[in-house]
From TrEMBL:
Protein family per UniProt: Belongs to the methyltransferase superfamily. L-isoaspartyl/D-aspartyl protein methyltransferase family.
InterPro entries documented for this protein: PCMT, SAM-dependent_MTases_sf
Taxonomy of the source species: Bacteria, Pseudomonadati, Pseudomonadota, Betaproteobacteria, Burkholderiales
Annotated protein name in UniProt: Protein-L-isoaspartate O-methyltransferase
Amino acid sequence: MNLPLNTSANISDPIAQARYNMIEQQIRPWNVLDADVLDLLAVVRREDFVPPAYRSLAFMDIEVPLLGNDAEEAVRLGHSMLQPRVEARILQDLRILPTDRVLEIGAGSGYMAALLAARAERVVSLEINPELAEMARENLRDAGVQNADVRLNDGARDAIPDGPFDVIVLSGSVAEVPTSLLALLRDGGRLGAIVGSEPVMRFTLTRRTGDRFETTSPWDTIAPRLVNFPEPSGFTF
């Protein structure tokens, strides 16, 4: 997809202006410079993946709540969208190809699945919360996305069919890169996850080459936890 970005000179719609500001003031300055990614963010309507109660927050540099009336509690429980700049940077660093089969852990509202599906051949997105899974399905259907499949599944514990995958992305944080998911990568595949514990987390990109795994951690961020993945046991004395 290679559509031209709007310029501030020809934007009269407030929603289009807010989207433009998100891209130019939040995302581009965060080293997201891939023109295809920026163009995609301009055409996938983020506001359509946000519940009506929180739609005014769709383009803000925050984690947007998805469930309930308590915004802080929704974010604490991981019932939220990642910050736009974090989603964009993940998408850029994964370098999705048109032939890629992608697995996402944590469907949320379906927005990241829509971005992935616009670049990949097929996306399987797993969501442990039934209400969020249904929300993601409806949002993707309304957006006309036909190559993304949302499944009610615990990505940390349940069996995951349809592997191996070219790309695996975790839309939330974990304490360490899950070895069970690395085993689902095909040769040349890559896994992106936000790894660590507050106050220090890093986006970690792991690439499989045969039986070897090469890992880089190019940037820092903070994200809510994905549930049921192992946590460190803590210090012992």
